[in-house]
Amino acid sequence: MLTLREAMSQLLEESVVPTPGNTRSTQGFVPALDLSETPEAFIVEAAVPGITSDDLNITVENNVLLISGEMREEEERKERNYHRVERRFGSFQRSVALPNTVKADQISAKLENGLLHLEIPKAEEVKPRRITVNVGNRN
Predict the structure, then answer these.
(1) What is the spatial distance between Cα 115 and Cα 109, in angstroms, rounded to a whole number?
(2) What share of the chain is helix, strand, coil (3-state, %, to 5)?
(3) Considering Cα of 13, then 15, then 17, then 23, what sign does the dihedral take?
(4) What is the domain extent for residue 59?
(5) 106 vs 60, 96, 103, 110, CA distance in Å?
């Protein structure tokens, strides 16, 4: 059983905020992700600042969209004495379960200003359709 102090120390060590003695994190980061929907497609937007398209890997398998990559640190500067390091570097991955009714082979991806934009088209059978009502005499 952990004491409250040990539990709090462990929680802080695993958090985003560095604690004294834990100023350099070895963990990667988790990009923020937005998921929205239009009548034609699902839209996934992920914040990946500093990532190039060469450092991204996007796959769909068994209706799971997987976005992975690596945020590389420019260079380590040993001549500095860091007081706080909040930027995260290393590998990351995010997964999103997709419905069966998407056209996975037609997903488009665009990376612009640190924002990854994925458009995942819906299959025709799930797009909303307007049904017209005929007016006439009942026989």
Answers:
(1) 10
(2) 15, 35, 50
(3) positive
(4) 29-73+86-126
(5) 11, 17, 6, 13
Place of tokens 């969209």: 65
CATH assignment at residue 43: 2.60.40.790
pTM over 0.85: no
Tens of pLDDT, residue by residue over 29-44, are 788 999 999 989 999 9
Separation between Cα atoms, residue 55 and residue 51, nearest integer Å: 6
Q: How many domains does the chain have?
A: 1
pLDDT in tens, 41-75: 999 999 998 889 999 999 999 889 999 998 877 66
Residue 15 in domain: no
